[in-house]
From TrEMBL:
<comment type="similarity">
    <text>Belongs to the FAH family.</text>
</comment>
<keyword id="KW-0614">Plasmid</keyword>
<dbReference type="Pfam" id="PF01557">
    <property type="entry name" value="FAA_hydrolase"/>
</dbReference>
<protein>
    <submittedName>
        <fullName>Fumarylacetoacetate hydrolase family protein</fullName>
    </submittedName>
</protein>
<dbReference type="InterPro" id="IPR011234">
    <property type="entry name" value="Fumarylacetoacetase-like_C"/>
</dbReference>
<dbReference type="InterPro" id="IPR036663">
    <property type="entry name" value="Fumarylacetoacetase_C_sf"/>
</dbReference>
<keyword id="KW-0378">Hydrolase</keyword>
<feature type="domain" description="Fumarylacetoacetase-like C-terminal">
    <location>
        <begin position="76"/>
        <end position="282"/>
    </location>
</feature>
<dbReference type="InterPro" id="IPR051121">
    <property type="entry name" value="FAH"/>
</dbReference>
<dbReference type="GO" id="GO:0016787">
    <property type="term" value="F:hydrolase activity"/>
</dbReference>
<keyword id="KW-0479">Metal-binding</keyword>
Length: 285
């Protein structure tokens, strides 16, 4: 299934994408695509539905019909840094011996096609296409061999990052990662049965039509099961938590000379089988 949330910001309703590309309304079945609806029993209930029995939502998704973040009420937005060998190389960083964990604040989360705002005074805002893992079954101290049973689905994340705030202003990375609008998520939550091989998904990102990132999850240092198991040693995971698993090479700071967003650009990014995002870059109000 491709599950989604549609409608005005803050008023999104749950839905699914049918085989004809139409949105079907799920608000008569679940209140939101969040929490209990993402647990294994909740996903099984949704899979048992006949999409033809659900109301059709007027409009074309991502073309007049706004999609919100594909998960509602995200509890934790956990990110993994330098998790692609070729991205670590372009930044001049050593290969991490253990996963690097940081956070994006949940106030950064927006829909897949919402505008991305440059923070006031920003000079080094950058892009990162990433595979998002949505937790369905909660737990802690999860065994690596059991980790995938805790996954409700996968999605596209743009881990927008302000490099000066992240690297040059002291403290942790978080201050450059969690600015408002820095977490476009979606368009769909794709259940694992529709993902052929999560370890070999093509992923890409373009700015104003120029392709900067063109990679694959095959170059991840730490794979999805290992990341879930590792993260769960340090915090419990709950249904609806999102783990964003790192980015391939081609980020702006890795260009020679570096390239950063100035405002007015359009970012377009996607992951094989998980959909496409499009964001206009604007100045913060």
């Amino acid at each position: 299934m491709k599950l989604l949330r549609y409608g005005p910001r803050g008023q999104e309703k749950p839905g699914l994408l049918d085989n004809e590309g139409r949105v079907r309304d799920l608000s008569g079945v679940i209140a939101d695509l969040a929490g209990p609806a993402l647990e294994p029993e909740g996903i099984a209930r949704l899979k048992a539905l006949d999409p033809a029995s659900l109301p059709v939502v007027e409009g074309t998704p991502q073309d007049g019909l706004r999609l919100g973040p594909c998960v509602g009420s995200i509890g934790k937005f956990i990110c993994i840094g330098l998790n692609y060998a070729d991205h670590a190389a372009e930044t001049g960083a050593d290969i991490p011996k253990e996963p690097i964990i940081f956070n994006k604040w949940t106030s950064s989360i927006v829909g897949p096609d919402d505008d991305v705002e440059l923070p006031r005074g920003s000079l080094k805002t950058d892009w990162e296409v990433e595979l998002g893992v949505v937790i369905g079954k909660g737990g802690k101290y999860i065994a690596e061999q059991d980790a995938l049973s805790h996954v409700a689905g996968y999605c596209v994340v743009n881990d927008v990052s302000e490099r000066e705030y992240q690297i040059e202003r002291g403290g942790t990375w978080d201050k450059g990662k969690g600015c408002d609008t820095f977490g476009p998520t979606g368009p769909w939550l794709v259940t694992p049965d529709e993902v052929n091989d999560v370890d070999s998904l093509g992923m890409w990102l373009e700015v104003d039509g120029r392709r900067y990132q063109d990679g694959s999850t095959s170059t991840m240092i730490f794979r999805v099961p290992e990341l879930i198991a590792y993260v769960s040693r340090f915090m419990s995971l709950q249904p609806g938590d999102v783990i964003s698993t790192g980015t391939p090479p081609g980020v702006g700071m890795g260009q020679k000379p570096p390239v950063y967003l100035k405002g007015g650009e359009v970012m377009r990014l996607g992951i094989e089988g998980l959909g496409v995002q499009t964001q206009k870059v604007v100045s913060a109000k």
